[in-house]
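Batch job 17 of 40 flagged for manual review because the log was empty.
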Amino acid sequence: MGHEDTAVRTPVRRPPRPSPARTARGPPRSPSPPRATMRRSPLLPIFLTVFVDVLGLTLVLPLLPFYAEHFGASELVVGVLAASYAVCQLVSGPILGRISDRVGRKPTLLASQTGTFIGFLVLGSASSLWMLFLGRIIDGLTAGNLTIAQAYISDVTRPEERTRAFGLIGIAFGSGFLLGPAITGELASRFGYGAPALGAAALSLTSILLTATLLPAKPIAPAAARSLDVDAAEAGAARPASDVRIGRGDAFRRFFDRPLARRRLLEFFAFSLSFSTLIGGLALFLERRFAFGVKETGYIFAFSGLIGGSIQGGALGRLARRYGEQRLAVVGFATMVIGYGLLGAAYGLPALLLLVAVGAFGSAVVRPSITTLLTKSVGRDEQGAALGVSQSLASISQIVGPIGAGWLIEHRALTAYGLMAATFAVVGLFLGAQKIPAGEPVEL
């Protein structure tokens, strides 16, 4: 380009390139976003938001069984307490996912976080068992934080980058499980059971401020991002954008009518059932089998978080690129079967720690892998609704798992508790091992 300008001797005549001023005043010549926008990754604020949310959740999670027993609850009532949150989440999850598709991720996330903040305040000031239920119900009715965060990540990432991006949520979970339960033990032993819940409320308020100040109001999709609209491909025609804003009652039917999306949702459901059963009864199991209190239980949760955070913070992206999400999910399910199935046979601390580590590895690779596969199986404009359906399935699992675990532990069936969690993982392993028929669309 510069060689033909060397014959021009007059210094006034410069190469015919637009000046910066003219370029700035003129219309945009490329659809690429500005450099400042590209340099500012929206994943950092969403990671911080999720991390603070999860840290608040993990302050409460190992505390609730001991808190409820303090007010005279049985093991089964402890399971029902955990399930009350999930029942409310089952009602609100798809609604919040659909609302976030319509009005935007940020305002919906702020509303959800505000409900969590109020729920934690009620929990921290509880003076009887019914107040624990009230706090969990308020939180559950607005519990869309994770679903909306996942939808936001789908908005701003290419399909091939999504597993690693969803791994950030895994890192947030792992870091939260590492720090939160350990802090809970110290706070509860020094200041009483209400202190961790009030600490969670303070963290929830911090999360609201982070979302309000750091998160872009409109996610910026990557310039090269493309997403396969599987439903349109199966129908042989493109669907108008307005048609993807489906009603809540139609969401299950629409996604379960598609073979590939149905399979991904069932895999996610199997994972959620297995994980919810384990987590829903773990504190009670540790109390009955090892005579652990809230402090020791917090350290076991923290150890599990350390394993999960280490995997998702380092190796997950490389493993996904090398083996693919589906193989990774199969390996994860297999390790969950081993870790959870043998847990009921553990009587010593070394065996307990080994099995917790094995199970934590499995859950750490399954969750982001299945979530990525799900988002790839639907159109970009449907991802919020699909993740809302997955949240509904997670809520169902969080009803079945803790109640089943609580009932078994109340009847001293500790070995059966571990086997129940492993059985659900076996279902996920079976689903994941099936090959995709040639007639089904391939995920992008």
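Reviewer: the log was empty due to a logging misconfiguration, but the result itself is present. The chain has 18 helices and no strands. Unflagging and moving on to job 18.
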